[in-house]
Amino acid sequence: MKTFWKVFIVLCFAAFITLTVVLVYLLATNLEFNNFPLVGQKVAIIPVKGEITSGGCGGNILTGGTECADVSTIEQELAAADKDDSIRAIVLDINSGGGGVIPSKELETTVKNEKKPVVACIGEEGASGAYYIASAADRIVADRNSITGSIGVIMSFDQVYGLYKKLGLNVTVIKSGNMKDIGSPYRPMTDEEKADLQKMVDEIYSDFVSDVATNRNLSYEYVRSISDGSIYLGRDAKNLGLVDDLGNLDDAVNIASDLGNISGEPSVERTKPKTFNLLDYLTRAGN
């Protein structure tokens, strides 16, 4: 019996010495631990759901939670995934019709600068600003019947001066310059004002088209020719070069796994989309 324990202790000691030598060798040669099986084999799924905004989700305490794509939250999740050595690739789970110009552009830039492979997966919808973000990914996967595209810019103003006139209401505006109340709902817009606003829209649109063309490795002229605000089914978007693959979220995970050089079945790490909750209401009410 004593002999057995002596042999057992010797074997354990030998195993310890061997493991120590291996670890020292790996550290000395700067080998990546993530290259080993069962270590660094994750794909992070980050949702981009609802309106793209930089101001938090809308809603109130009575209507409950409203799903939104809060840019600051998504950027934090991307940064965390980038720092996590166990995560090899990222999938953006997109279901959004777009949102603000500035937050959409900001997130597009963040995705473009992401160090790890990013696959955009368009489910039901990935249009306008949401497609802008998707275009910056390394690959785009879309359901064949998804709504994609809608590459364009829109600016709208509510006009109520006709109704006010019928009701006998009047609004007096005191302003410092002719353009200070541009877009006012209480009077018709002048031709000069329309021209100025159209110029702004055209410049933003040109940037949108240029970025998509660069991201998708297409010519500016070609992207502009298919960017009149039209929406496309996923299958048509693929034929137009706006999408790489047709499939679902599982397909996107598999593609991300390949791009991340993951061996075998990857594990999936999901984050939940941002919603408006009671804490948001209380925080907003206190400001």
Describe the structure.
This protein is α/β, with parallel strands linked by helices. Among the domains are: 1-31; 40-150 and 230-286, 2-enoyl-CoA Hydratase, Chain A, domain 1 (Alpha-Beta Complex). It has ten helices and eleven strands. Strand 5, helix 4 and strand 6 (139-142) form a beta-alpha-beta unit. The longest helix is centred in the N-terminal third of the chain and has 27 residues, at 2-28.
What are the key terms here?
10 helices; alpha/beta; 287 residues; 8-stranded mixed beta sheet; single chain; 2-enoyl-CoA Hydratase, Chain A, domain 1
Give the structure's gist in a few sentences.
The protein has 287 residues and is α/β, with parallel strands linked by helices. The protein has helices spanning 2-28, 71-83, 101-112, 129-134, 161-167, 191-215, 220-225, 234-240, 249-259, 278-286, and strands spanning 42-49, 51-53, 67-70, 87-96, 118-127, 139-142, 147-149, 231-233, 245-246, 267-270, 274-275. α4 links the parallel β5 (118-127) and β6.
Oligomer designation: single chain
Please identify which CATH superfamily of the domain at 40-150 and 230-286 we are dealing with: 2-enoyl-CoA Hydratase, Chain A, domain 1
CATH class of the domain at 40-150 and 230-286: Alpha Beta
Q: Would you identify the CATH architecture of the domain at 40-150 and 230-286?
A: Alpha-Beta Complex
Which sequence of SSEs, written as H and E, runs from N to C?
HEEEHEHEHEEHHHEHEHEEH
Span of the ends, CA to CA: 75 Å
How large a portion of the residues is in β-strands, by DSSP E? 15-25%
- The amount of helix comes to 40-55%
CATH fold-level name of the domain at 40-150 and 230-286 = 2-enoyl-CoA Hydratase, Chain A, domain 1
- Rounded to an integer in angstroms, the radius of gyration calculated over CA atoms is 26 Å
Q: Structural class of the helices, strands and pairings?
A: alpha/beta
**Quick one: biggest sheet?**
8 strands, mixed
Uncertain runs: 29-38
Molecular shape: elongated
Task: Give me the count of strands.
Answer: 11
Number of helices: 10
What's the average pLDDT? 84
